[in-house]
Batch of 4 targets.
Target 1
Amino acid sequence: MKRLLLLLFAVFAFAVLRAAESKRPNILLIVSDDQGYADAGFQGCKDIPTPHLDELARGGVVFTQGYVSHPFCSPTRAGLMTGRYQHRFGHENNPFYDPADRREGLPVAEKLLPEYLRAAGYVTGWVGKWHLGAAPEFRPERRGFAETFGFIGGGHRFQNWTANPAVEYMVPLERNGVAVAVSGHLTGVLGREAADFVRRHAAAPWFLYLAFNAPHTPHEPTAERLAQFAAIADPKRRAYAAQVSLLDDAIGETLAALRASGQAERTLVFFFSDNGGPIAVNGSLNTPLRDGKGSVYEGGVRVPFVLRWPAALPAGARSAAAVSALDVFATALAAAGAPMPADRVRDSVDLVPFITGAKTGAPHERLFWRAQRGQRAVRDAEGWKLVRQDGRADELYHLSADPGEDMNLAAREPDRVRALAADLAAWERELVPPAFPGATARAAAKAAKKKN
């Protein structure tokens, strides 16, 4: 009898555990690279069809004021992986690609989201672009990812490259740290890898960080896809459109794997770009926003932003709340039933209660930015934004009425300028100096040495 009771208890405990597991969603984080704010159908784009992104948006919540924590690549990724403004640990620059450099990368004192999710019982995977340091201790397999596939640097050729570990854009692709040969357009390869991960782990729960390098340059779309956009007169915009279209297909393949394996309902999906489009570089559009990548004006930091979780969130919703890529951290942990770590300051907010109405008010009272060339900015929940640049007078914009930041209201609203400037100064006092000089500084030093 005692043995029978123990057996029944074990069966009951297993059933309870499986029931708890089934309520925890898979988590799919999709990040595009240098995509313009206006360059998706759900954002109003007319010349680049993005049916799969539009499907994702129709099934979830579109945040019209979704932001990243930095106007260029690597710092944004450091922020979303830690749930902290990356300035708190000095990750303000793009690391220089050098596998022998033990300083250029996301400081190892910071514990990343996949480490917490893995401890909570999730299978963790990374596919795509890393750009958080190339030395062994910075690599994804050492930062919480159980399965890895992609390239370690900040960018890569899309077609016809000769693998060269010394050249950042031609390094071999690696699976779990081992170089592998691949064929086909890189964007499609990444989509297939992501879809395969989804199918292999249908038992759930899992976390997949799918980080594309499209539509970042170099523009190398397939000839067939480029031909589909022959009606676009500007050759730069034409190539960019083809790259975005290939990106959309790769995302579509991943979403199709979710549906076919019966996992779509219980998968929490994030999608956003890592920064605004570099309009003069890759042919992107940030309409109606001002400026682009590298700038703390809206065009540099406001991005297409979607959150979908069919089991828990409404479909076809739009929200004007100011949210941040930093919020991936808290939202994912809460969905996974994992506690928010309390060992240091976190700037991340669980967005789900604000969408469902369980919480009212604004997810963030303030959002902050600091970037190269002496740029700083802060915006409040009501849409008032202060822009500060070295050597220039402070600027004030009311984004609710002026998303393009055309009308500087600083002279008309001096009290508001002072209040936001005080908030910005208080935030900066919490930050640390940059932890590494980064690729830009390295390139400048090299150019100066060559000149002399």
Target 2
Amino acid sequence: MEKDMTKGSPMRLILGFAVPLLFGLLFQQFYSMVDTIIVGHYLGVDALAAVGATGSVNFLIIGFCMGVCNGFAIPIAQEFGAGHEDNLRRFVGNCVRLSAVFAVVMTILVVLLCRPILQLMRTPENIIDGSYSYIIIIFIGIPVTFLYNMTAAIIRSLGDSKTPVIFLMMSAVMNIFLDLLCIIVLHMGVSGAAVATVVSQAVAGMSCLIYMKKKYAILKLDKNDWRWDHGYALKLCNMGIPMGLQYSITAIGSVVLQSAVNGIGSDAVAAVTAGSKLSMLMACPIDAMGSTMATYGGQNMGAGDLERVGKGLKSCTILGLLYSFLAMAVVFVAGRHLLMLFLDAGEEAILGNAVYYIRRNVIFYFPLAMVNIVRFLIQGMGFSRLAVFAGAFEMLARGLAGFVLVPLFGFPAVCFANPLAWIFADLFLVPAYFFVRKKAEGMMRTT
């Protein structure tokens, strides 16, 4: 069911949209967690490190795919908020065609370059074959990634954050059984974890596509809607490509940092892998807030109501602050026990480093919340290219950590790299919001 976010209490609307989205993000992390838990316990620390060593390059490529799809959905949200259904359908038709082109081109490129990238990242020799076996299958599944993220983003742009979650929950359960089958029964090693992830996401994507076509009258496209239109395609690319580049630019810094961690050794990689998995799980509510603000900002910008945009920012900032304190309490009380989902208690040194890592990250969750809230709001308002600079600031910070701080201070510097990146991004984003707000007010006065 579509939801109009241009009317009603901003706090209530943001919570109503973000909570189902949160469950979706939790289940996305659940995919990854199940892989990590089963790999860590059944295949050992080297296999866990092999999967973990692919994290940054995975984010570099898959993050670009997700960013492009989310960016493509912004004009759709704006047209929905403005009540222009004909334009909305034309954007959807061109969005599908562009997504197919991006998926094919990216799959070919990254499959060819995959192993050289792992070598360039100084992946340790004892885990590089496992890393390649895992990530090459994930990259072959890029069309599936586009399918799910495109259909889910379109549905969310109409104010429906619940439907994609339902299908993702179903596929998450499938992922568990496929993991157990491929790794324990079929003895496929880390490749089995990747196969399970791709197949499960394919099920989620196809389910969203079928549901979208059957249930949303507003998305019933005719021949004219499917026709290629340079104007619509250009606007989609102006939103989608910068948003994808924002993810990738951010990830370049992560690749540099991952290379520095790889240089410390596979034990450090395993500790960061486990700590990162828990950190990403704990950050799901913050990610949900960000995605919510993209839709909220898009619809209200389309409706020409900047006052509601500001009220939404204030409400979401309060939610971000409250959750940051809650996450800190959970990690400091139960973080060690939660990390045992990924590591055996006997791996005392690795476990201790993972605890150190997650605690240093969670202290800075409010700056992370502001990064997501403000950046996605700016993108939803139609200023995607400006938000790319926030990713550049994050890249700069992680590059500084990887090239300078980690060689000087070792593992402790790894633990403060992400917080440094979030603070750098906020130093750009907060002033950028006020600039965007002023520019949007000027645009509305001239129309």
Target 3
Amino acid sequence: MGKLAEYRQILKKLDDWDQYILAESRLPGPRANLELVEAVAAEGDINKFRRYLTYDANQAPYGSALEFLPVCGVVGLGRLLAEGKTELLAVLRSYASDPRWRVREGVTIALQKFGDVNHGRTFKGDGGVDLW
């Protein structure tokens, strides 16, 4: 079993994810736990993602473990976006200019999820969705 599958199984068993996520985030440190980000995005729901996105740059500054929560939130929005919830594009877009580079990178991962299921059809002109 790979790390992603392991994390997903653990999350399914937990009532409160936050302490586990923060402990396993690898932050502060040079490399966040991207497998855990993917697991949270796969197993979470809109309410969890919205709550994680309430952690702004003052509450969860760059380099802190708390910064991991909004990263998970934006990547989770990407999963929902890929599932057809295109109304979340505006929310996702607002995080594209976040002062924390990890959150901005999370937006990139989120848009990749959307692009993977839309096969590059991302603009109105070719039958896709207007991103911006």
Target 4
Amino acid sequence: MLDPKIRDLASTGQNFGTVALTLPNGQIASHVMWVDADDDHIIFNTEVHRAKFRALSDGTQVTVTVWKAESPYAYAEVRGHVAEIVRGDEARAHIDALAARYTGTEYTNPIESERVIVKIAPDRQRTSNL
């Protein structure tokens, strides 16, 4: 179960997250992203052609840090693993919902491949100043 403070931070407002993972060549990559959450997962949305997605599979270890937009010293860190990848219409609708939350409009960037939702199950969670 995701800590309710983390769920609320990630699923409301314009609080950005950083997704950190290890690429196949061993380098660590981090990406600032729009984030979301449900009761059990921290969530992000990407496309299948991107390096971050190509580095993921079931069980891949990922760290997501989310900070409060108006107070960046208020943040949460979730260290976890890929629990589920959602494709299709649900993933497309999700990026539109994220865009509306973060920008006020539906997603307008061209989709080059396929949108996917990546759900991270927490193995370790912590918060600071939330």
